[in-house]
């Protein structure tokens, strides 16, 4: 999910493959990503490779009770 702060609109995506997430992030080009430490541990190169495409701030959070890997 993501929020466009310029318009206040909230969007939710349902993705089946990691490549779909990467494609969506390239399209959206977020200024900030919030993710669980668990996601970073499972995909250590994901944000490193993404940072080569555009700059963004990465924030980690502890495990969520909802089980979301990326927000």
From the alpha-carbon coordinates, what is the Rg to the nearest angstrom? 12 Å
Overall pLDDT level: 88
Distance separating the two termini? 6 Å
- The secondary-structure class comes to alpha+beta
Main sheet: strands, sense, barrel: 2 strands, antiparallel
Major β-sheet strand ordering: 1-2
Task: Give the CA-based shape.
Answer: globular
Helix content: 25-40%
Individual helix count = 3
Low-confidence blocks of residues: none
Q: Secondary-structure element order, as H and E?
A: EEHEHHE
Strand fraction equals 15-25%
**Total E-strand runs:** 4
Give a structural overview.
This protein is α+β, with helices and mostly antiparallel strands. It is 31% helix and 23% strand. It is built from 3 helices and 4 strands; from the N terminus they run E-E-H-E-H-H-E. A two-stranded antiparallel sheet has the order 1-2. Strands 3-4 form a two-stranded parallel ribbon. Strand 1 (2-4) and strand 2 (9-11) form a beta hairpin. The longest helix is centred in the N-terminal third of the chain and has 11 residues, at 18-28. It starts with a strand and ends in a 10-residue tail after the last strand. The model has no long low-confidence stretch (mean pLDDT 88).
